[in-house]
Amino acid sequence: MDTNWQERLEALLETVSRPARYVGGEVNQADKEWKPGMTRFCFAFPDTYEVAMSHLGMKVIYDAVNRAEGLVCERVMMPWTDMLEGMKREGIPLFSLETRTPLSAFDAVGFTLQYEMSYTNVLAMLDAGGIAVESRDRGRDAPVVIAGGPCAFNPEPLADFVDAFLMGDGETATLEMLRVIGDGRRRGLDREDILLALAQIEGVYVPRFYTPEYHGDGRLAAFSPVRAGVPARVRKRIEPDLDLAAYPETIPLPFTEAVHDRIVLEIMRGCTRGCRFCQAGMLYRPVRERSPEKLFALAEKLVASTGYEEMSLSSLSTGDYSRLPALIRGLDERFSSRRVALSLPSLRVDGELKQTLEMSSQVKKSGLTLAPEAGTQRLRDVINKGVTEEDVLRSVTEAFESGWSGVKLYFMIGLPTETDEDLLGIAELAKKVVGRYYALPREKRPRGLKVVVSASTFVPKPFTPFQWAPQDGLPEIKRKQALLRQALNIRGVEFNWHEPELSVLEACFARGDRRLGRALLAAWRSGCVLDGWSEQFDNRKWLDAFEAAGLTPAFYAQRERPEDEQLPWDFADIGVTRAYLRLEFRRALEGQTTPDCRDGCEGCGLRRFEGICPE
Amino acid sequence: MKMLTVFEKTGAARFIGHLDLQRAMQRALRRSGLPVRYSQGFNPHLLLSFASPLSVGTEGLREIMEVPLSDDVAEASFLARLNVALPQGLKASLARALPDDAPAAMARLHAARYAIRPMASADTLLAAAPAFLAQETIPFLRKTKSGERMDDLRPLILALQAEDGALRATLSCHERGTAKPEQLVAALAAFSGLPAPRCRVTREGLLDRDMRPLEGL
Lengths: 615, 217
Known about the structure:
A: Rossmann fold; 20 strands; B: alpha+beta; 5 helices; elongated
């Protein structure tokens, strides 16, 4: 093997943008010594260092693996294009930050799949790391390539590239997988046998042991195991008690500012609000809270080990945390004198919480951000977003009265049953928000009104009631964006929208099947990487890649899927049943809302998992 | 009191930008438990000032920062506690306790000494140094926030000699005139009819008006 690449790397680092991303050695980096008999794991984040170092999941797994006896975890991220090209030119393999070990020398490499448009980065990183891109081309010595994260719940588009997927919570399951992999490799087992052993772990899906069949028109006809001893359905992993689940007490401090550069406390997992477009809300049920006592103890350790000056709370719906006032009070008491600011998301502030916030000295209120998601009550009922116009207007009025002049409003366009009236409702709501500002006496108004309206394009996701729904076609998305641009030409209002071509591709891969692997491969080969960064995105290349694979984006994105159609992800059991999702889809089309299940079980299916759902 | 602190920024840490260095130092000081001071106001921040920012990729051997403290701390104790908290590549080598009203290092800074190692054409460039320096004026295009203008590099080069395959340069470094190593190399390369090579640059020390180390006082 070429061992002189380290010197060439030093020279390359002098020429690339932000080299601090590639050198490791940050404060709190885990420098666990490699000893014979250990299992070596590289956690791979398929986006840039700045994004990766903002990601809580990576820090949780990194810490959990490094605490475990006999396991080592290092990190690698997607290099920016200048570095990637330079490495290729100089014959430098993609390496881990901690020990500059090429990816090919690990026992296992594990990707977190946070976003569909990072899939080609997975391919690029494998290739740069000296690992065969396609699973079937990997020999006995090649690392086992695993993946988890929200997108692993529909793993099929990556079935050709990833050896084994984990569905669900990774704190315990990742360790189990690594032990099986390390043990198998030390015993000299065949790759196939290691994968078969992995498939026995609850939550693990090994695509090569399953095969799809298709109808003549391209729809999935059947999907079943082809090997004895693998489960027909893969049930997601759940950490039942967050107080017992692994959580880092120290985290590596990024050398160059991360997108989110602060201590993050995950206070709760799961959400029971039941918004019908929201995948996380279905995937991460049941709701589990971490106790304030546990969080205080974690925060103490994290503040001492990092020196961070800011802390934030993470969950899908922080306002639903049952002991929020006590938590905020406790954190404020402990940390305000140490100058650690607590930054909170936009919350409905009343009662005890209002008092708490008024008394807290170091609580940093960020500007007001609200997500009504749709412009009319009718459409908000369709998507089961329990926010009324009055809620929005009350919140913005309070914000203006307490001195904020900027508010952000998030919407989606292209939701099922949407009409132009719903779209214009977004502009109406924005106008009313502006109206509330001018309704305040001039001397009480904060200066510089700025209402930012962001409209993303609706992407139907697996495991949501809208998994059967079509996405609008590109011309329709563009027409709607133009309509909104015109309607939102209001003084004090700024309108942002997303690149519609990217949303269409997202929709393809979100609900894609195994055949999309060919399109991914073609897109990567033609140079599509880091597509989440708009300066890198080239839609033409993607369309060519689909064509080369004999596929059409419209088949995946714009087709309403009939009730009886087998879906590529049906084999995964997330707890919430398909029947419940279908019921919710029907209710959506009828404009019928479903209450939060904390007030009574709605029968989503999670109760089938014994002892998981609180009574 | 405030603590004048000499530190090195070497190895991988040379890639940390100035803002990121500030953050890294602030967090290290917070971890150290030293009695640091904070600014007043709505968003108080830890008080800390550097004598001079260092470009990304440039090593520094005797960089200087000043840390205001709310209680007296012995110099040796300050040094030990800070070093425990610092990451690889950042290491403090000297601490000097000063009264709060001692003139700021930033204000006393006059020049900086560099070792510049060209990665190509080193021999030609080093050989050209004496003739280059003998010029009366060295016009160069200075890029500023508002655009570009012609400037004279010659008075900003306080010393220049070739030694051990490196250019050793003392360059002016104060608000009335600052020259950077890259500007020197570009001008020297142009003088020699060569394209400007990439260089490995080390800032070896910061000097006051009398050309004495800034930390010497």
